[in-house]
Specification:
- It is a single chain.
- With 172 residues, the protein is mainly alpha-helical.
- It has six helices and no strands.
- The N and C termini lie far apart (62 Å).
């Protein structure tokens, strides 16, 4: 039975988790530099893992039910683009960078530019080619891990010197 729209619903469910954690971050840290309750950081990490799972399932479900379409693919890429934005904002809040150039640079150079080049490559080659280590898998796992580390250690963890974190093993 072909039920149109189900893969897009899977995509949308994952995106709701991204919106939920980004909204929580903006409510608890309006300037993206305030310390938030630890459960918000943990929820952010979990939300990114749920988003990643849903993002991987939607295409498989579309192929399995023969419901894939160019419109569904465009919807998926649009949600992915919005996710880069909202998860970037949440990450800036999670590590307490605030509205700084460092935070903006992280979102642009780590999130936007690779996403734009991957989309451009897909447009010209007709398919996405992911390297062994890539953003949709390892990048999201890294973001989730950073949120979980912040839940355990607090945002001040990211503002320590490398020497103090390594116990003096690494001296800068």
């Amino acid at each position: 039975v072909r039920i149109p729209g189900i893969p897009n619903l899977i995509t949308l469910i994952g995106f709701f988790f991204v919106l939920a954690h980004a909204t929580l971050c903006m409510v608890y840290a309006p300037t993206l530099s305030e310390e938030m309750p630890r459960w918000v950081y943990a929820f952010s990490g979990l939300s990114m893992l749920i988003y990643q799972t849903m993002d991987n399932l939607d295409g498989k479900q579309a192929k399995r039910t023969k419901a894939s379409s160019p419109l569904g693919e465009m919807f998926d890429h649009g949600v992915d683009a919005l996710t880069v934005t909202f998860s970037g904002i949440a990450m800036i809040a999670s590590i307490g960078l605030g509205g700084s150039w460092a935070g903006l640079s992280c979102v642009i150079f780590i999130g936007f530019i690779p996403f734009i080049f991957a989309t451009w490559e897909e447009y010209h080659l007709g398919a996405l080619h992911f390297p062994i280590i890539n953003g949709p898998i390892e990048g999201i796992l890294m973001l989730s891990g950073m949120h979980f580390l912040t839940a355990i250690n607090g945002p001040q963890f990211w503002h320590q010197s490398l020497e103090s974190v390594s116990g003096g093993v690494i001296q800068v």
